[in-house]
Amino acid sequence: DPRRTLTHFSQDNVSHYDIFLLDESEEELYVGARDRVLALTVTPGSIHARASIMWGPTAEKTSECAFKKKSQETECFNFIRVLVALNQTHLYVCGTYAFSPACTYIHLENFTLVSSGRGQPFLDGKGQCPFDPQHNYTALLVDGELYAGTMNNFQGNEPIISRSLGTRTLLKTDAFLRWLSDDAAFVASFSIPGDDKVYFFFEETAEEFDFFERLLVPRVARVCKSDVGGDKVLQKKWTTFLKAQLVCSQPGHFPFNVIHHAFALPRRDGGADFYAVFTSQWQAGRAGSAAVCAYSQEDLEKVFEGKYKELNKESSRWTVYSGPDMSPRPGSCSVAPSSDKALTFMKDHFLMDEKVSPIQGRPLLVKSDVTYTRIAVDETRGISGTTYRVLFLATAKGFLHKAVELPKGPHIVESIQLFRTSEPVKNLLLVPGKGTLYVGYSRGVLQVPLANCSLHRSCAECVLARDPYCAW
After folding, report:
1. Cα–Cα distance between 32 and 29 in angstroms, integer?
2. CA 48 to CA 296: how far, in whole Å?
3. For the chain, how many structural domains are there in total?
4. Which residue in 218, 327, 374, 436 could disulfide with 246, CB within 3.0 to 4.6 Å?
5. For residue 471, is it within any domain?
6. Cis omega (within 30 of 0) on the bond before 328?
7. In angstroms, rounded to a whole number, what is the distance separating the alpha carbons of residues 199 and 195?
8. What is the rounded CA–CA span in Å between residue 43 and residue 47?
9. Which residue, among 323, 324, 327, has the nearest Cα to 342 in the 3D structure?
10. Given this model, what pLDDT does residue 402 score?
């Protein structure tokens, strides 16, 4: 876009700038790419490579991958999928490693891979990182433990939510109990300050509806940070896993039931609002509409504290559980590892009966002929002292829409073409303190200023633009 200065970074022979991690100083950006981890020095208006690590699969792993009928041109590489700051001195990183997921540590001081001695250079990444670069994934470090939502096998039909690292028991969802449908695809995960739970946003085929075709539903699941698994029942498994359906629909239209990404905006009063972007499964093959829905943490909590669904074994139908209440409540964070009765109940009461409705009961924004791939939300104070929320929405064709939430609904104040040729945005990272947004795509990284106020040539033009970052 000629009217806006975009700072661009790319390196020869490096592709798939898929995952970002910003250093606490906000002056160093770590990037996970294909067979590479980069350390970039970033300041407003400039991005420079400080260091880079080559971490590709061994020749042996590459040939094993090819032997399994995977492509040596596009798939048998190490696509970085987990990149978290373990502490002040080390990063923890995992990659698909030619369909044989691996993890390792990076020493920050000299930016090198840590060899673990014992002849095993890397750790097994199964359950923390997907096998297939095409699979969706999410991972989050909370209090030194890694919470991950990913695919747990080569075939790609055993999704998992796991907790690893740290000193406590390794926990995971129980594949046998079908807590997740076998096509579950994770798009985001969050830990809200002051809250004792971790939330996962994903989509999967619904088991609870009698529908003649495969029906996808967007979901939110949650687990308690205090969970340590059960003593006798549900050993090494979550004892607090619950999931619920998210609703994003307009009356008279097909629901927006395919979730692409989500973002958590912490509120000043504590708690958070979750924003998510959706499309509908009934518009495949033609450009349909995209929707943004927002959900309050209270609305999520209410559903998770409500009634459960259960599968009626005779009719194979999901109905509301109407049996007696138990105390402590199954799935709540106060359940003891030894309360076998509550844990046995949890095995098949993991789906909530009520659905999570969006704030104001409808989508915030519906835009036709576009697919939003990523979302980030900033809160900024306008000149009058009013707080505005600004949505940054990246599209599958490489545009960035900037929308301001106004009393009558959001208003798209800017549409920025990020690339010369059309391609999807893979990654968005908002850095409000620096007034910038980082965009990751197949060939590089872009730094986009949140505002472009010099564009407005007069006071009237500036006022009409309705951009809260700008004042005349």
Report:
1. 10
2. 39
3. 1
4. 218
5. no
6. yes
7. 10
8. 7
9. 327
10. 94
Residue 472 lies in a domain: no
Residue with tokens 């959900």, as numbered in its chain: 295
Sequence-distant (6+) residues with CB within 8 A of 251 are none
Q: What is the pLDDT of residue 286?
A: 55
pLDDT (tens digit per residue) in 331-363:
999 888 778 888 999 999 999 999 999 999 999
Which of 325-334 are b and which e, b meaning 16 or more Cβ less than 10 Å from the residue's Cβ?
A: eeeeebbbbe
pLDDT for position 231: 92
**Range(s) of the domain holding residue 290:** 7-465
Within-domain flag for 470: no
pLDDT one-digit tens code per residue, 143-164? 999 999 999 999 989 999 999 9
Residue 220: the pLDDT is 98
Q: Is residue 249 part of a domain?
A: yes
What is the arrangement of strands in the sheet containing 36-43, beginning at the earlier edge strand? Answer: 19-22, 28-33, 36-43, 46-54
Q: Are 229 and 169 in contact (CB under 8 A)?
A: yes
Whole-angstrom distance between the N-terminal and C-terminal Cα of the chain? 23
Distance CA 89, CA 98 (A): 28
Return the pLDDT at 1: 46
For the chain, give the percent of residues with pLDDT over 90.
Answer: 67
Q: The whole model's pTM is what? A: 0.94
DSSP string spanning 270-312? SSEEEEEEEE-GGGTTS--EEEEEEEEHHHHHHHHTSPBEEEE
To which H or E segment does residue 182 belong? none
Using CB atoms within 10 Å of the CB of residue 458, give its burial: 0 to 12 exposed, 13 to 18 middle, 19+ buried.
exposed
The domain that holds 270 is classified in CATH as: 2.130.10.10
